[in-house]
Amino acid sequence: MLKLEGVISVLPTPFTAGGQIDFESLRNIIRLFLEAGVNGFTALGVTSEVSRLPESEKKQIVEVVVSEVNGRVPVVVGTTAEGTHTCIESSRVAAAAGASAIMVSPPRMPKLNSHSVMRHYKTLSDAVDLPIVLQDYPPVSGYAMEPSLLLQVIREVPNAIAIKLEDAPTPLKVARIRAIAETTAFAIFGGLGGTYLLEELLAGGDGAMTGFAIPEILIEVVRNFHSGDLEKAKGFFFRYVGLMRFEFQEGIGMAIRKEILRRRGAISAAGVRPPGASLDASTARALDELLAWYRKEGCPWI
Amino acid sequence: MLKLEGVISVLPTPFTAGGQIDFESLRNIIRLFLEAGVNGFTALGVTSEVSRLPESEKKQIVEVVVSEVNGRVPVVVGTTAEGTHTCIESSRVAAAAGASAIMVSPPRMPKLNSHSVMRHYKTLSDAVDLPIVLQDYPPVSGYAMEPSLLLQVIREVPNAIAIKLEDAPTPLKVARIRAIAETTAFAIFGGLGGTYLLEELLAGGDGAMTGFAIPEILIEVVRNFHSGDLEKAKGFFFRYVGLMRFEFQEGIGMAIRKEILRRRGAISAAGVRPPGASLDASTARALDELLAWYRKEGCPWI
Amino acid sequence: MLKLEGVISVLPTPFTAGGQIDFESLRNIIRLFLEAGVNGFTALGVTSEVSRLPESEKKQIVEVVVSEVNGRVPVVVGTTAEGTHTCIESSRVAAAAGASAIMVSPPRMPKLNSHSVMRHYKTLSDAVDLPIVLQDYPPVSGYAMEPSLLLQVIREVPNAIAIKLEDAPTPLKVARIRAIAETTAFAIFGGLGGTYLLEELLAGGDGAMTGFAIPEILIEVVRNFHSGDLEKAKGFFFRYVGLMRFEFQEGIGMAIRKEILRRRGAISAAGVRPPGASLDASTARALDELLAWYRKEGCPWI
Amino acid sequence: MLKLEGVISVLPTPFTAGGQIDFESLRNIIRLFLEAGVNGFTALGVTSEVSRLPESEKKQIVEVVVSEVNGRVPVVVGTTAEGTHTCIESSRVAAAAGASAIMVSPPRMPKLNSHSVMRHYKTLSDAVDLPIVLQDYPPVSGYAMEPSLLLQVIREVPNAIAIKLEDAPTPLKVARIRAIAETTAFAIFGGLGGTYLLEELLAGGDGAMTGFAIPEILIEVVRNFHSGDLEKAKGFFFRYVGLMRFEFQEGIGMAIRKEILRRRGAISAAGVRPPGASLDASTARALDELLAWYRKEGCPWI
User: Fold this and answer.
1) Which of C153, C40, C154, C135 is nearest to C87 (CA)?
2) Domain D6-230 class?
3) Cβ of A168 under 8 Å from any chain D Cβ?
4) Which end of chain A is more exposed for a tag (fewer CB within 10 A), N or C?
5) Residue D7 pLDDT grade (very low, low, confident, very high; cuts 50, 70, 90)
6) Does this complex have an ipTM over 0.90?
7) How many CA atoms does the CB half-sphere of A81 hold within 13 Å?
8) Which of A192, A198, A199, A232 would you mutate first to test chain D, the one with the most D CBs within 10 A?
């Protein structure tokens, strides 16, 4: 069975100035992040602006990512859908394109309940032969899965192998899940742009699955933590968490993330597809100040 | 310019027992409703379980509806999407398939605001040459448009010709919009399963755009109201509104609607795509009692 | 132990033109409804505009209600609060004033979960010696209790004796709770203005706890249903459910309810405390048409 | 007219182990923060667990705060209420107790709209002779005020003098409000635990109004920023923002905040009133690691 661990980068979808997918920039990000040492990629996540991509583009993106990664690390593909049918269909497309695993949030639906969540995951697991990462992201599904439900899905759904948490406070949720998990084996990844990565690791988390534009920092935190050097992990984390915090701003975060990647030379344009917000002058100015300060402090990646 | 009026039926998507689209049943519904005298159809609405259909099925459905309707009444097609790009793309598919108009809700997005709503509609109107029905359905978009914003969209977006309201209390919202509309011409349709149709008409509404399984009732209400026979309109409405009310139950309404259509002989199976709820024994029993009572009272359509 | 049953009217809070509580009108409603045959009252519910009353007025209201009812039927008092402490404090005030039971919704709080809900009810039950009605009203608490949690509270919280449901579809929720309740004894009351009362009874409900301004109709439905005359119950329900439906409009419902009571001669003014919406001309006109029609049809109570 | 500026600390409500208000600890916090140089206090905010306090305790708290502060800095008092009546009543209690200003969020209510928000503030301003701080905190009111509405309230409501923002991304919202404010004079304070203070200042913010347990840091940021030493402001901010971030965790933040204050010697116990979450072992451990690291880095206040 696939083992996911460490830092798994959720890939943005770069666009040209004309709004078309810029596949060369996408390949560049992958190369940059692989060199940085990421342990995997997630395609078609929220960071990928997945909700603004038609099916044909989604398929192309997975194919390009799988081809560029070329087996060096696992590729998780987001296939969340409002219907069980469409979720299965997208998952099969991902499987055919070479995905290593799928990441799935409960379906958005009025009156969703724990039984329909369980049934959704079970039907999916029966239909698609790929490991499943449970995405716990209440704003996407409108539904917050309690630790007991997450664990029940992990135990009763054969393909469920990991949990990705976006339901703050994530460190506490990691602790609560681990407290009832006993001997059940599964991985827990924090999201939230890496803003609580250290605390998630301390609570029993396994790594980060997020779109932060400088995964090098997350990698140093996780690597040092797992090798037992807590002080060094803390050093990287506390020194740079101001960066993660800035990038992780609701509504404008994606535009910031892409601008950082553009400045890092990974992508050619920082545009976000409408109705997503583009970088405004005020946020751009704050980013300048932020990057200048961290550069002065010796951050080697910006 | 297209003029929408009267009762426009939002079409469900019938499925076979195996979960595939049952196009013959879809054609049957159209025939039944055309005979009943509906003034138009809406394909790919919430009632159509649109969120559980892949793009290929959506395209097929529009083609079948347009072909079956064959120009006798207008066909509105729902093309709401989370991205402006994808909304335009779906709208062009609808246009190519022969749609008379599109129905579009604001895009679902964190931190949506009135400016991004306006920009979304304007960009859409510039890109697609089809009349636009504004769908005011807060649970879909997570955003409630105030009367002033709805009117601003109507006035500033060239293709915007009508509003479909699902934001209760709809009669009051109709009145508030009409109170500030002055000489601006546009139609307002109520939704909510027809449960407040009479009150919407009294407040200045033009008709109903909803998925109620017995549009004959809505047609009698609207026709008599518009011909000036308020008492007759009231008679039809108050006598049968218990039916609309029963069908219009959150979470289970779609299953009830399809079961009524099945009993009317229009569709061969009443199944709903998961994770949508199927008809449970308790609701089925209540439906039996309801239909028995209205049949006894002389309702000719059940 | 107290046994709640039948139709329990949630009392509005009548105000004078100057916005002060009109206790004489409150007593009038109680007298009118007792003559009509209600089986109990609920004070300080949502219908009572409880969220717009300071503590001193709440205390006065309970005292007046208890004094006017004078032991003839039970008086349930709403004591929902955001803190366990304040909930207990309000419940003790209610107990001291002679309340027969309290009605409590889960506390509104970010990140509420099933454990904190259970702890809230247990602490309350330990601290206050009054039967508890669990109010399942997601818009108040921001939290939907699943059937299994409701049943767990009923079983593990000694004072919990009944459930009041406002989480649509209520008939289905009644059925789901009864399906897992086995031999546990407790009452279930429907709310939602009585709009699904018949279906709730068919599913295993015990009665209605709601603020509908013409409880005579609900009483006929429940009484006939419980005496085995389903046809008569259906007759009253289906003939008049259009009334319940009209009154039960989000945002404006309270103003309608009070206007009906004013027209029935029970209260002297129909004002609602701001920011609650007052009756607008459009809704008033629709009410005129509605009442005229039902009067013509022979409804004896309007 | 009162001028609010700089760092205004929102005061927590310390409790004894038995759950009663610990007024001596409350006085201690005020003394500690006055020595630190705060420019004002806010009593009865969300941080004060205001929703879990009965009216009598609220009154006592305001009296103790006003008495301890003794005119040295302004005291803002939160008087948000679901009714206009109760908001006015609470505001008068605050005025009588010596409050310098009131802080008010739109009333929580289904179907709230911009007109009812405006009417609420106008009625309040007419009734109470105290400056008003508009609290823009969507999770409290369920309503997000757009920049244009905030500015309209500032312009049309005589007593409205300042805005407190909690609607992320706050720096962007500051910029948007300033962009349309022209010559209108008013202050904007950021909240969110100070996590975006620097960016808010860069965008045109005036200071912070928040409950962060180490206001010394916020003071250094604001003071240096306003005196023109941006580099020094950045230094304090970026070095310590990891602390603000940790404290500012949804659901558990209040427990962390109090534990830090306990460790600083300001309060005798860190308990939170139920159903608020107490500090769990996992979060406590993370706090240990955090404080140890920042202490080692030379943070003088922990």
Assistant:
1) C135
2) alpha beta
3) yes
4) N
5) very high
6) yes
7) 31
8) A199
Q: Are D61 and D79 in contact (CB under 8 A)?
A: no
Which pLDDT value is given to residue C1? 78
Interface touch D202/A249, C-beta < 8 Å: no
Q: What is the DSSP string of chain A?
A: -----EEEEEPP--B-TTSSB-HHHHHHHHHHHHHHT-SEEEESSGGGTGGG--HHHHHHHHHHHHHHHTTSS-EEEE---SSHHHHHHHHHHHHHTT-SEEEEPPPP-TT--HHHHHHHHHHHHHH--S-EEEEE-HHHHS-PPPHHHHHHHHHHSTTEEEEEE-SSSHHHHHHHHHHHHTT---EEEE-GGGTTHHHHHHTT--EEEE--S-HHHHHHHHHHHHTT-HHHHHHHHHHHHHHHHHH--TTTHHHHHHHHHHHTTS-S-----TTSPPPPHHHHHHHHHHHHHHHHTT-TT-
The predicted structure's pLDDT at residue A83: 97
Residue B249 structure tokens: 């139950």
Q: Is the per-residue pLDDT at C215 higher than 90? A: yes
For chain D, positions 9-28, list CB contacts with chain C under 8 A. 19
* The CATH number, out of the four listed (1.10.10.10, 3.30.565.10, 3.20.20.70, 3.40.50.10330), of the domain defined by the range B6-240: 3.20.20.70
Give yes or no for residue D140 having a pLDDT over 90: no
Q: What pTM was computed for the model?
A: 0.97
Chains that touch D (3 or more CB pairs under 8 A): A, B, C
The predicted model gives A115-127 an average pLDDT of 98
Q: What is the pLDDT of residue B141?
A: 85
The 10s digit of each residue's pLDDT in A153-186 is 999 999 999 999 999 999 999 999 999 999 999 9
pLDDT recorded at residue D139: 85
Mutate to test the interface with D, among A249, A254, A285 (most CBs of D within 10 A): A249
Chain A residue with the nearest C-alpha to that of C138: A111
Strand pairing class (A207-210; B6-10):
unpaired
Q: Do C245 and B195 touch (CB under 8 A)?
A: yes
Cβ–Cβ contact B286 with A under 8 A? no
Residues A74-119 have pLDDT tens digits of 999 999 999 999 999 999 999 999 999 999 999 999 999 999 999 9
CATH fold of A6-239 reads TIM Barrel (3.20.20)
Residue range B50-66, pLDDT digits in tens:
999 999 999 999 999 99
Domain C6-296, CATH among 3.40.50.300, 3.20.20.70, 3.40.190.10, 3.20.10.10: 3.20.20.70
- Cβ of D110 under 8 Å from any chain C Cβ? yes
* Preferred mutation among A51, A104, A272 to probe B, highest tally of B CBs within 10 A: A51
CA distance B209 to chain C (A): 19
